[in-house]
Amino acid sequence: MRKTKYLGILVLAFILVGGIGCATASSDKMSSMKTEMTADDATAAIAAADAARKKAGSVSGEWRDTGKIIGEAEEAAKAGDFAKAVKLANKAKVQGERGYEQMVSQEKLRLPSYFK
Amino acid sequence: MKKIVLMTTALLMVVGFSNAVMASPEEDRQIFLNFYKERFPNVPQDDYINGVYAIDPVGRENWEAIEEFPPYETAIDAGKSMWDTAFANGKTYSDCFPDGPAIMSKYPHWNKEKGSVITLPLALNACREANGEKPLKYNKGAIANIVSYIAYESRDQVTNVVIPKDDPRALEAYEMGKKFYFTKRGQLNFSCANCHLQNVGMVLRTEILGPAVGQTTHWPVYRSKWGEMGTLHRRFKGCNEQVRAKAFKPHGEEYRNLEYFLTYQSNNLPLNGPGARK
């Protein structure tokens, strides 16, 4: 009992330290990131998002809205709002990656315990 | 060394065992039936053809009122005239389906030559194309009309999905449908089974989640929410999209196999299409 308690505290401490570490790392990255997005940034982000979407599709894991979000990113880029375009494209890319992982993690059928 | 041998033997035994317990389609069907029997001990087996209304007495009253003036009647009539009207080349649907129109219980079935599951809408479109007609769109409209007529003429046949033993690909297709059924999809990470098995009877927004057994007996359906008739694969699409997964092509491989698996679970239940739903 006592032991698990200490273990819990340790784990918590690790998460906290780790979390702070991450936060500083990412804020460093943030400040070094350029604030002005260009047309090239948007094009690259959209291409990456579309690749992620297709990869998810290759394992039947595409999500409903990913294509739509990429479309919106393209619209934004066309209108010259490259920051918005990149933001949307990145969101779509994450969806593609999640959809892919979701399917790969279920590659082998594991029947739920209630199905027996 | 001895330990390794022991461990390997144990592993082999486990693998062998799990192979041996891989459920057959018939065992799957029994699991489904027993599952619902435990949840809803008072629902007679044949009542599952009424979908969610088998377990929702309030919804059932509304539904029975609707069924007094069936909203799918015009679809049956329109489908009948499609069946009776000759194609441009003078042939009719009966030339493709000499036993028709009461042929619902023959679908879906395994086709050895094609190496795939054939659904009724696929067979109807194949007939059209063989006679120089354009294929129909799958989700609604004319396809729902002609299938309504066929369903109506087939009432009181029973669901009878066969998985032939002489072609192992048939069982593979069934297993793929089963895998689809239990795979979590979409941004909300739900499988079909999460809703229609695990959480059956629970309320989702304004709807009660209905059992999987009986879900295939009554298509096409006039759905109040659609305000029109729709096909089974249109429903598959809707159920995929509500968990924010991208839907699959109607009568493409995924949904064909899903239909094969799902319809099997309704084996021996009477066909009662077309239907009406909320």
Draw up the topology in text.
The complex is a heterodimer of chains A (116) and B (278).
Chain A: H1 2-32, H2 39-58, H3 66-78, H4 82-104
Chain B: H1 2-20, H2 25-39, H3 57-68, H4 73-84, H5 93-96, E1 109-111, E2 116-118, H6 120-130, H7 142-153, H8 168-182, H9 192-198, E3 203-204, E4 207-208, E5 221-223, E6 228-230, H10 232-241, H11 253-264, E7 275-277
Parallel strand pairs in B: 5-7
Antiparallel strand pairs in B: 1-2, 3-4, 5-6
How would you describe this structure to a colleague?
The complex is a heterodimer of chains A (116) and B (278). In chain A, 25% of the residues are buried. Chain A contains 4 helices and no strands. By secondary structure, chain A is mainly α. Chain A starts with a helix and ends in a 12-residue tail after the last helix. Chain A has helices at 2-32, 39-58, 66-78, 82-104. Helices cover 75% and strands 0% of the residues of chain A. Residues 9-32 of chain A have low confidence and may be disordered. In chain A, helix 2 packs antiparallel against helix 3 (66-78), helix 2 (39-58) packs parallel to helix 4 (82-104) and helix 3 (66-78) packs antiparallel against helix 4 (82-104). Chain A is elongated. Chain A folds into 2 domains: 1-35; 37-107. With 278 residues, chain B is mainly α. Chain B folds into 2 domains: 2-69 and 163-277, Cytochrome Bc1 Complex, Chain D, domain 2; 74-153, Cytochrome Bc1 Complex, Chain D, domain 2. Chain B contains 11 helices and 7 strands. Chain B has helices at residues 2-20, 25-39, 57-68, 73-84, 93-96, 120-130, 142-153, 168-182, 192-198, 232-241, 253-264; strands at residues 109-111, 116-118, 203-204, 207-208, 221-223, 228-230, 275-277. In chain B, the strands form 3 sheets. Chain B has a 3-stranded mixed beta sheet with strand order 6-5-7. Chain B has a two-stranded antiparallel ribbon with strand order 1-2. In chain B, strand 1 (109-111) and strand 2 form a beta hairpin. In chain B, helix 4 packs across helix 7 and helix 8 (168-182) packs across helix 11 (253-264). The N and C termini of chain B lie far apart (65 Å). In chain B, 38% of the residues are buried.
